């Protein structure tokens, strides 16, 4: 039984537009910028992480706490349904108060 061609993942821009509408319901204005990057209030940002799954239903998002310092302030959504969050430190390592 042929079910037809496999669905393809949504383009990153479309994923971010959907996320932007949901985030705007919670707080502030979110706008899509080249990159693609979803820019929020202050210096917050969201972008689609590199795809590591063949599933068209799986999307990981990177949350940037400060888009000006993305390498140091990016949280990575490493899950989907039972979503987990990971943290990737920047090149200078984690910064915790001592």
Q: Would you spell out the secondary-structure blueprint of this structure?
A:
Blueprint: H1 12-26, E1 31-33, E2 37-39, E3 45-48, E4 61-64, E5 74-77, E6 85-87
Antiparallel strand pairs: 1-2, 2-3, 3-4, 4-5, 5-6
Characterise this structure.
- This protein is α+β, with helices and mostly antiparallel strands.
- Helix content is 15%, strand content 21%.
- The protein contains one helix and six strands; from the N terminus they run αββββββ.
- It has one domain.
Q: Please write the string of helix (H) and strand (E) elements.
A: HEEEEEE
**What would the principal axes of the Cα set say about the shape?**
globular
Sheet with most strands: strand arrangement: 1-2-3-4-5-6
Give me the number of helical elements: 1
Measured between the Cα atoms of the first and last residue, the distance is: 62 Å
List unreliable stretches of 5+ residues: 80-87, 90-98
**Structural class computed from helices and strand pairing:** alpha+beta
**Spatial extent as radius of gyration:** 15 Å
Number of domains: 1
Helix content bin: 10-25%
Total number of beta strands: 6
Main sheet?
6 strands, antiparallel
- What is the beta-strand fraction? 15-25%
Integer average pLDDT:
79
In short:
This protein has one helix spanning 12-26, and strands at 31-33, 37-39, 45-48, 61-64, 74-77, 85-87.
Summary tags:
single chain, 98 residues, alpha+beta, six-stranded antiparallel beta sheet, 15% helix, 21% strand
